[in-house]
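Q: Could you fold this chain for me?
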Amino acid sequence: MSPPFSSGIYVSRGVALLLAGLTAVLLLALVVLAALYGSCAHVQSSELDSHLVKDTSLSPPGGQEWTQPTPAHESTVGTSQDWRPPSGPWDHLRLPPWLVPLHYDLELWPRLQPDNLSTPSLTFTGRVNITVRCTVATSTLLLHSFFLNYKQVEVWGPLAPDTRNATVGRVPLENVWFALDMQYVVLDLGQSLDPGSSYELNFDFSGQVLQEGSEGLFLNLYTDEDQLRALIATQMEPTFARHVFPCFDEPALKATFNITIIHHPGYVALSNMPQLGQSHRIDVNGSRWTVTSFHTTPRMPTYLVALVICDFDYVSRTERGKEIRVWARKDDIADGYLDFAANHTGPVFSFLEDLFNISYPLPKTDIIALPTFVNGAMENWGLMIFDASLLLELDDDLPEKRAMILSILSHEVGHQWFGNLVTMSWWNNIWLNEGFASYFEVGLTNYFYPKVPRNMIFFLTVLHDILEDDHSLESRAVSTPVENFTETREINRLFDIYTYKKGIWSLFTSLVTVYYFINIPGANLN
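A: Sure. Below is the predicted structure, expressed as structure tokens.
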């Protein structure tokens, strides 16, 4: 028998060991590259999914949050970089009339601590339960929201008609996404809401406290009693409530509010209504916080929601059984710089109550003078906010300064009726709010402080200025058609000389005309 035949390549034992080692190294490299590729793909997928969530569980899995992208990252909304929502109601500046807000239970928790003022960014968390009434069957819900992140979103209902907040079930939620151009958060539901029924929308959210400017929830750093201090305040008008909590941020959509503020025990919390009660809460780090709740507000628009967290002092007066507190830095209160404002606020309220024969409906009034407030003054119902121009310092106690303080106070107090009690349907008629407030600003200042001829000042400044500007090519009518508005920032531009000075002139001429036809015999409208 002959030996068996075979063919191939023969190598030595050493070469075989070397080839086996190289093969093992190559396989290891492939495993590492595959792992790195998988990690990158997971990160990209997570970033995309954070903007469009389809999970309908009560709490999102893994603590996933729904993050509203900045305009620079708008393309990340959806399931791909090129995804855009189809055209729909989110392309319009006005909310669709499908839902009517009835009540907000709002809780806000800014993480401001007096011993940690150097933090580069200050955050807040919050939750809001909004009771709404459905007017048209819809499975798509739109609310205003800007730069807010969401941890949990739920829709419950329909609510039982006899018991508030009693529900029969949870409405399935299929999608949450953001329409940045018009500043909406959009909820796609798994079923339509029933017309005539009420529902509750629940949101857990977070955001950033603004460190420069006065929009939404903002920070003031200042010095008092030779120490660096901080406070938090709000400016919601015209469209900044959506920076603080998801809401129906239009002036006609009034609702009642139960507001709760969680704050450091070293601070006091103020809001539109008197304090209802206080309790305490311990955070995950073991720190103790104070929980301050407030009485229910009257029906009001979102732009009047207000809160302040500070360690100011105040001076108090009582007018017709209602307390008026004027808050400021402790140094300013001790020096008596707010006494003039405190002494004249009550009489201004009483004068307007008698003039309108309508009592001021809130049980209290807080006025606060911030060290820095870009807007100058804001008429929030029950919590008016001013800048330092409200202070009457001893070296500036001149008739003109007193008249200016009276003018500012009269304007904002006038808004408690014109604007707060009676509100325009939308911002194109803001000139009615500001025109009436400016009208009474001039009249009340002249009534309470006749040393300065404010009527003459009106003709020399207001009338002359507006007639001069109104002759220019850039002039506009006091009221702009709603359909002309295409961007939210166009609303901010309405707060100009034409709204205030042309508004007051339009009201002045109208009132004179009405007086003429009512009081002069033989006058008629023909």
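A (continued): The mean pLDDT is 82.
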